[in-house]
Amino acid sequence: MYNRGPDLISHNPIPVQILLPSHLLRCLPPPQKKAPVHPLPGYRSLCSFTTQDVDLLVLFLQSQISPPSALTCIPLPASATLDRLRGCRRRILRPFRVLVGCRSRSGGLDPTKAGRGFLVGSPPAMAALVELFLGSSSAPVDWEAEAYPAYGDFAVLPLLVAFFPAVRFLLDRLVFEVLARRFIFGKGYDKLAETDDSRKKINKFKESAWKFVYFLSGELLSLSVTYNEPWFKNTTYFWVGPGDQIWPDQKIKLKLKAVYMYAAGFYTYSIFALLFWETRRSDFGVSMSHHVATVVLIVLSYIFRFARVGSVVLALHDASDIFLEIGKMAKYSSCEWLAVVAFLLFVASWILLRLIIFPFWIIRSTSYEVLLTLDKEKHRFYGPIYYYVFNCLLLALLVLHIYWWVLIWRMLVKQIQSKGRVGDDVRSDSEGEDEHED
């Protein structure tokens, strides 16, 4: 779908300059591929267009893009000069499909003098550069707005990867350290001399407190976005609706994109945290495999338009982890009754969510129900790739669930043998002496 901005087509054709990303030149007819190099890095200049050609160019490019995505067009202000564009990082400019404008004598894109200037691109990818030229808008964000997933949506990921360690550092210093000492040592904790064992226990408490904060916030965010959607309770709607949309030609809401970026940022950060920050446990390799597989699964499910499935998978996983981290903090604080209750809730939620609902509802839908709706003739190439890659990743995640269930079962047996007392985390059996410090 192509949305034209106001007054895009002039009644009198006006010459315009079109700045086209070099990586999209292959979409143009052969005569246009000899365009000269433009001063703006990564772009080439095509000058033989008028404002009446803009619509045709955008529609042609949209037909060549795979997978297809929505395009929108807005006028550029007079301040959209090449100097300002050169100041933008290339990662901001790359997601744009087309940059259309006219060049003034000073070398700027000046739509008020020599003609008209326009930005044409996928709506999510345009937000950063539009704000650069037009300033932030006072209009509220429309979280219900729908658009196709785009690679440019991941431009926010580096910010989130930096956001999580910054927040964790502040919480560690200002909140978790105080709570750990208070719950572990009780009143008068500030008068106790610190030992190596007490420092290790404090660090473990802070680690669990941080994970609890994320999993709780992630679960609340996922549920707030997905609970009222039809596909939360009926997996058939993973693949159909609203209206005549059928997977993979489905748009997703902006708020669902936010859920995905939040999770992608956390698990990307978690890879580095596992290497350089957190306690090194005996299941380090499995944990690293889980984080890497999760990041790959999040990114590919977003690009392959499995976001509806992915949001439910995130909700299923975060729920059981909440109880796990509560149990750990209770154990470190010597609150046995709370540790027992949290552990039993964790076991029950793991069985229900990860070993029953995940394979028999989610994977069943991604491996069987999707085939009932997929137009195999229309998607003969991309359909099978999306299908097999995504399902292989889900099955790999299920294998990790089963592996961890074996460890959980051992803990459960130990608890029964010790008459209800929760044992230490089975992953801690082989922790090294030189654990990571905060």
Automatic annotation (TrEMBL):
<dbReference type="GO" id="GO:0050291">
    <property type="term" value="F:sphingosine N-acyltransferase activity"/>
</dbReference>
<keyword id="KW-0472">Membrane</keyword>
<dbReference type="Pfam" id="PF03798">
    <property type="entry name" value="TRAM_LAG1_CLN8"/>
</dbReference>
<dbReference type="GO" id="GO:0005789">
    <property type="term" value="C:endoplasmic reticulum membrane"/>
</dbReference>
<keyword id="KW-0812">Transmembrane</keyword>
<feature type="transmembrane region" description="Helical">
    <location>
        <begin position="114"/>
        <end position="134"/>
    </location>
</feature>
<feature type="transmembrane region" description="Helical">
    <location>
        <begin position="292"/>
        <end position="316"/>
    </location>
</feature>
<protein>
    <recommendedName>
        <fullName>TLC domain-containing protein</fullName>
    </recommendedName>
</protein>
<feature type="transmembrane region" description="Helical">
    <location>
        <begin position="385"/>
        <end position="409"/>
    </location>
</feature>
<dbReference type="InterPro" id="IPR006634">
    <property type="entry name" value="TLC-dom"/>
</dbReference>
<feature type="transmembrane region" description="Helical">
    <location>
        <begin position="259"/>
        <end position="277"/>
    </location>
</feature>
<feature type="domain" description="TLC">
    <location>
        <begin position="203"/>
        <end position="417"/>
    </location>
</feature>
<feature type="transmembrane region" description="Helical">
    <location>
        <begin position="154"/>
        <end position="171"/>
    </location>
</feature>
<feature type="transmembrane region" description="Helical">
    <location>
        <begin position="337"/>
        <end position="363"/>
    </location>
</feature>
<dbReference type="InterPro" id="IPR016439">
    <property type="entry name" value="Lag1/Lac1-like"/>
</dbReference>
<dbReference type="GO" id="GO:0046513">
    <property type="term" value="P:ceramide biosynthetic process"/>
</dbReference>
<keyword id="KW-1133">Transmembrane helix</keyword>
